[in-house]
Amino acid sequence: MALKRPSPRSTTRQPRLLCLNGERRGQTVLLTGEGISLGRVRANDICICDPHVSRRHARIARDGDAWSLVDRESQNGTFVNDAPVRERILAHGDEIRIAEHRFVFLLAEQEGELSSAKAIEEGQAAKDAERTITVKAIIPEGLAFPAATPEEMKLDPHFARRLLQQNETLRAMAEMLVEDVDRGSLLERIARMLLETFHAERSCILIADRASGAWAPAARASAGTPDEGEPPISQTVVQKVASERVSLLCRDALSDTHLQLASSVVGLGIRSVMATPLLVRNRLLGGLYVDNRTSVGEFRSEDLWLFRALANQIAMLLDYLRLLESLRRRLHHLQDSADQAAPAIVGESPALREVVAIARKAAVSNATVLVLGESGTGKEVIARSIHRWSPRRDEAFMVVNCTALADQLLQSDLFGHERGAFTGAIRQKRGRLEIADGGTVFLDEIGEIDREMQAKFLRFLQEHEFERLGGTQPIKVDVRVIAASNRDLAEEVRAGRFREDLYYRLRVVEIVMPPLRDRPQDVPLLADAFLREYAAATGRDVRRFSAQAASLLKHHSWPGNIRELRNCIERAVVLGSGEAIEPMDLGLSAARLRIGARAQSMSYREQTRLFKRELIEAALEQSDGQHAKAAGLLGLQPAYLSRLMKNLGMR
After folding, report:
1. CA dihedral 521, 526, 531, 533 (to 10 degrees)
2. What would the DSSP string read from start to end of 416-484?
3. Beta carbons of 634 and 641 less than 8 angstroms apart
4. For residues 510 and 490, is the Cβ–Cβ distance under 8 A?
5. Rounded distance, CA 37 to CA 57, Å?
6. 216: how many CB neighbours lie within 10 A of its CB?
7. Are 631 and 638 in contact (CB under 8 A)?
8. Per the count of CB atoms within 10 A, which of 192, 335, 372, 529 is most buried?
9. Per-residue pLDDT tens digits for 17-69
């Protein structure tokens, strides 16, 4: 801080400023003329060389017989007796603070008042000496707070003001805790708080990846004009804090024996730096980092204690957010399960009892299960039952339809992707395998995936780890895999369309779901269960099937299996009008009757076209409108089916 040369002291009534700290402590500046200016540039009457002082910070101007202090819209404010002011009439003995620099305004009329001012100066110097303490550069985690004795923690007014500012930050964080905000925006606000609270030039909140343990920036802030891209930080400091779990404070990094050789410190020109880990119940969640690249000694020992206290609060906040996110995922999963859960396994046929017995034995292990069977036989139902009977019952059950997505999208859905992995990947995404960690993943129609995807999934089954699309870091998960297919995978292996090694990896336990035509005794039981379900859903008082309807249900071949039976009963409940379901309500033979009645007035070509339309409509209904599945049921290529539908006027 540079002061213009003061005039000789006088005992006449002459207002003046007495400097209380810094290199010019004890010097005075007489207030003459219209007043004086204070700021960082040399054009000011009092030049204060401090980056936290604005270029033209404040002015003391004559106001009639009085003197007033005016803040000139400074960035960090002007304080009188610890209170922020915009404009204030000064009284004798008022203390003015600008950043770390303090002055006393004096109106000395007698020599006694000059002695009083001298006593103020000497008392302030004694306080400055008392608060000087020594701080280790590296503070072990366990000693961070207990090592500070009451004698070491004597506070001066300046530190008390900074402590109040820190407490205000903690209060603001407590308010954030009860706000329903996005985690990303919340961390950005906290990073900005750290920047302003510690008068740093850069701040960063780093989060540890749960799978790999690597630290990655979750939020950053920088003072002044932002750097192009993301402001860099010292990886040497971050790695030391992460590996040793210590809190680090360095007042002059370029002179420190440990850090002056670090390329990141030298290359970035870091002068002062603080970093500390985020720990909750001895779990390392990440770390906090702040630095200053223009000032030496910017961070003090008191700052480190409070920085660590803030880190404890932020760590608790992050742990709370993780728990909240986990609970929300669990709630979403339970809601999906309640909305989409398949009915319980219904039936008493020997074929079904054998399937249930195998499934119960497989459920208690972590063995991969391959479920085979025609469409609509209940492959997903048995998969959900295996999960429900297993020790993983309280974890997630994720369903992945391998035919619903293109190859790249399927890989992204299953493994996740990094930001920029492909066009449109604007942010990192966790895949279903990662989300289902600890639970079960059900891969429906596994026989539809291509050879490249087969190779990637085989590696996952062997190593229980994978990499996100565009990533290089392996991620380990504990997931139980259940796969299903309506194809004959053994035949697919012989034809070279499915990898043999993947086939045997999936076929640790094989379950073959029997078609409904092979278990006719289960049809009445299933029909009654569906009748109760849809009667309750529609509010209709329908409780039974007529004898003719029951006979028709039992003797129908059910090419669409349980799915066809379910749709048939739903239709009967919705369209029926009596207390019992009648044969005409079921609609099983209506299509053939309509074709027969019109056959006498139709040519062979017209009957053939009509029959093709009926076949395609039935296949689409059985496959829930999925053209690829419908083509498989008809033994056609999807492209040919599309052309055929166009020729028949169905598009």
Report:
1. 160
2. EE-TTSSTT--S-EE-HHHHTTTSEEEEETGGGS-HHHHHHHHHHHHHSEE--BT--S-EE---EEEEE
3. yes
4. no
5. 8
6. 11
7. yes
8. 372
9. 888 877 677 788 888 888 899 988 888 888 888 878 888 999 999 888 889 99
**505 backbone dihedrals φ, ψ, rounded to 5°:** -65, -40
State how far the Cα of 578 lies from the Cα of 354, in Å rounded to an integer: 38
CA distances from residue 153 to 143, 147, 313 in whole angstroms, order as listed = 15, 10, 21
Token pair listed for 544 = 């039974």
Identify the residue whose tokens are 């990533």: 471
Q: Decide: 185 and 167 in contact? Cβ < 8 Å.
A: no
Structure tokens at 498: 């499915």
* Cα dist from 527 to 83, 482, 535, 586, whole Å: 80, 28, 12, 11
- The burial of 128, by beta-carbon neighbours within 10 Å (0-12 exposed, 13-18 middle, 19 or more buried), is given as middle
Distance, CA of 188 to CA of 361 (rounded, Å) = 50
Residues 6 or more apart whose CB falls under 8 angstroms from that of 51 comprise 40, 294, 295
Q: Is there a contact between 538 and 573 (Cβ–Cβ < 8 Å)?
A: yes
Q: How many CB atoms neighbour CB 608 within 10 A? A: 11
pLDDT in tens, 187-233: 888 888 888 888 888 899 998 887 777 888 888 888 765 554 556 78
> What tokens were used for 212?
């790999």
Residues 101, 104, 106, CA angle at the centre, nearest 5°? 155
Model confidence pTM above 0.70: no
**Model pLDDT for residues 82-95, shown as the tens digit of each residue:** 888 889 999 888 89
What's the token pair of residue 420?
């920029």
Rounded distance, CA 109 to CA 341, Å? 90
Beta bridge partners of 544: 580
Distances, alpha carbon 574 to alpha carbons 528, 538, 543, 585, in Å: 15, 7, 13, 9
Q: Which residue has the tokens 């039935």?
A: 618
Spatial contact of 342 and 378, defined as CB atoms under 8 Å apart: yes
96 conformational bin, left if phi > 0, alpha if psi -120 to 50, beta if neither: beta
